[in-house]
Design brief:
135 residues; alpha+beta; Alpha-Beta Plaits; four-stranded antiparallel beta sheet
């Protein structure tokens, strides 16, 4: 069954001009791009999006980083899209990510790891609605 997931190309990868390579990889992996938008979110919007992490020690750093520059939000569709995208992304820490994963190629460290992906069906629905209410 086809499902949808949210992908975000984070400010570090946008700044490094890696967006095109990441989008190409998304298409090469067989994902359909349903919708895509480049934008800059405010700190308040970043805090709202990452509210699930508000009590974690990295919350302040994460939200400041995500609001520091443009991001590209993308709705992906494919069979088992959530797990497929998480596999293509690789581990959160690029140093532990398998060779050839997006985070291994474009990530710098756990904080600057190039991309985001939804972790479960309900999360995907919530995250997609956050950036694409029309979907």
């Amino acid at each position: 069954m086809k499902e949808r997931t949210l992908a975000i190309i984070k400010p570090d990868a946008v700044k490094a001009k890696a967006s095109g390579k990441i989008i190409d990889r998304i298409e090469q992996e067989g994902f359909d791009i349903i919708s895509m938008n480049k934008l800059k979110i405010t700190l308040d919007k970043a805090k709202e999006f990452y509210a699930v992490h508000k009590d974690k020690p990295f919350f302040k750093e994460l939200t400041e980083f995500m609001s520091s520059g443009p991001i590209i939000v993308i709705v992906l569709e494919k069979e088992n899209a959530i797990n497929a995208w998480r596999t293509v992304m690789g581990e959160t820490n690029p140093a532990k990510a398998y060779n050839g994963t997006i985070r291994q190629i474009f990530g710098t460290n756990t904080g600057l790891n190039a991309v985001h992906g939804s972790d479960a069906p309900q999360t995907a629905r919530t995250e997609i609605k956050f950036f694409f209410p029309e979907l």
